[in-house]
Amino acid sequence: MRSVSIAPAFLIIAAVDAAVDVDSAYPAGSGSPEYADSGRSAVAVTDTIQLQRAIHKHKQDSVSIHNNMVRQMPRHPEVETQESRCLCVFDIDRTLTGAQGKVDQCPRNREITGVHDNAYGHGWLTLSALSVAGIDSTFCNQCHLGICSAGDADGENSKERAYLLEHVLLTDVQKEFNAKHADATKWSYWGNVNTPLSLNVPNKEKQNAVEDIRKWYSRRGVSIASNQVYFFGDRVENIPPFAKLGFNAREISCDARDKHLYGGSGMVGVCGATPEEVIRKQGIYNCDDDRSGEGCHTALEGDECYANVKWAMEIGIKRHPHWYPGLTASSSFVDFQLELSKDDKLRCPEPCHSPTAQDESAAAVGESEASSSESFALACRNTTPGEECYANVNWVMTEGIYKHPSWYPGLTASSSFHEIQEMLFEKGPKHGNCPKPCLGTL
Predict the structure, then answer these.
(1) What pLDDT does residue 429 have?
(2) Domain count, the chain
């Protein structure tokens, strides 16, 4: 198809005006009878008026032709249909991953035997609670993804990089995008960030690499406003600089900080991100800032919060009852955790109204009878932190499957978050209150 070059309308008009500048060609009032009487013929006056009208009409016609031609020009289909999107960018070490060999301290994490990780030492790759549950279990399922890490994900062609791509960096939006853009799954490095997966990015410079990622998507027809960019990382000093570019940033692994590295300052996390920390809240938030809006999590044995709650229940309430207004020695674990969650220094999230706080038989998470309720049989939706279903799925993954494996035929401790949600959905609303998960994320 032959290309057509279209001059902007203002250039066409300027060219006409330059050819005949009517206002300067004749004195003011040259069309008046007085000027005609001064010696110029009426014909000259008439010609001037006709020329002015012709120029005016030519200007109108030029603008109309230009606008019509622009409307008819073919547009890039991806740009034309693309709406404003969101972008979720994650650190890797102690965010998507946890400290190696610390699963006892981080009971929601999962060790991947056979996949090496060189971050902060060496050991088997250990997925954080977020990676275990899936990024697609958060609002980021509807966003594009990026990586911004100071590390190198165990080096070129490593098993860790392959595992992250195949099992962690997955959302509905990103899978569709990756199918059309092969370079979206390639890794790049600080100094030449030309893919969404950036490594070796210096601390306190990550906001600049994230801007490179945002521009990379823009060049491929995906327009993402700065205020729709969300960064999640564990390192304290990396969060505030994101404000300079109008991005959102949130420190994660707030309830488990590393007290051995950096002189015990808590500069970095231990367990990594949890899904309830990944929320769509604009602003810059370190762990000591406002954490309202995060999802719930009932502490598990091994969590720092769990130890604090047990101490409060067994010792604190007896020695210092005034510290726990409204509570008694017979109050439940969840009641104590809820009270402790009000003090940021105690590293306790708000607990969920979960089966661990009720009679398990009444909670019916693991019972086998199914409901025929039609309200759950239509639209699919992946549960998100803060919902009853999310708390129930999390309980099955971290406790139920181990305590009562017979309740979950066909599932194992390595079953995915969405496989468990599917099972609870099939059992009906009385058994987890779960909607049907979307097939694209199973």
Answers:
(1) 65
(2) 4
